[in-house]
Amino acid sequence: QVQLLESGGGLVQPGGPLRLSCAASTTMFAPYAMAWYRQAPGKERELVASIGNYGRTKYADSVKGRFTISRDNAKKTLYLQMNGVLPADTAVYYCNEARNIWPWGQGTQVTVST
User: How confident is the model at residue 105, as a pLDDT?
Assistant: First the structure.
């Protein structure tokens, strides 16, 4: 069974950078489109960014121009570079295959605050 392990979250000041990682324990990673999601307190989980198996990326309007999704297929790892973070970015961040076919991991908490 595939396991997803998100890391890199923490407390960051508004305007600061943060880099999230997601390691996937799967024998096959490169063929899958991957995505980052987030869930803020009291809200539903939402799609933040996705990356296809050929590297094509898409972003939610709320993070466009600030966040960058990338992947290292050799390391079976997905990344989310977050720049210019806002308090509204505070959430638990999760990764998954773009169709959510794998079990969800524990996520990594991102808190943007002074």
Answer: 96
